[in-house]
Specification:
- This protein is an all-alpha fold.
- It has a domain at about 55-135: Four Helix Bundle (Hemerythrin (Met), subunit A), CATH 1.20.120.
- It has helices at about 1-15, 20-25, 35-40, 45-90, 95-135.
Length: about 150
Amino acid sequence: MLTRWAVALAILIASGGSAAAQAMCGDPPLAPVLPSAAEVRQKTPAEAAAARHSAFLDIKRWQGELKSYRDCLNATTSTDNRDMGEMQRSDKPDKDKIAKMQAEITTTSHAYDASVDQEEKVVNEFHAAQVAYCERTDVDRASCPKN
């Protein structure tokens, strides 16, 4: 029974198509919700420190999920490039299948780039909250960057 599932999975992977990539990699992980700089300024010192630490942990967890997601996208692109190259070298290349693989590679590349853009946005939000925390005089700034 397990062998049948493995064969079915191998056929699904080999069939290509953006639906297969979506099924394999899924949606990108959801970005954490971070406190804004204004919210950090309004919190008590203990609440601000806890929010900053919690945001840091949420980002690290999320970045781990992003790595897995991107690894899947990279593997999908590598497989499509390999399969497309084999098709192009065949005696009668199937232009429709090649075009479909090229479209999937483009879609996967856009998904990868979008995840990088989202990560940059989240890290910038965290940096703004961290700056707001470190500008306070009523908190322990030992973990703040030295100016």
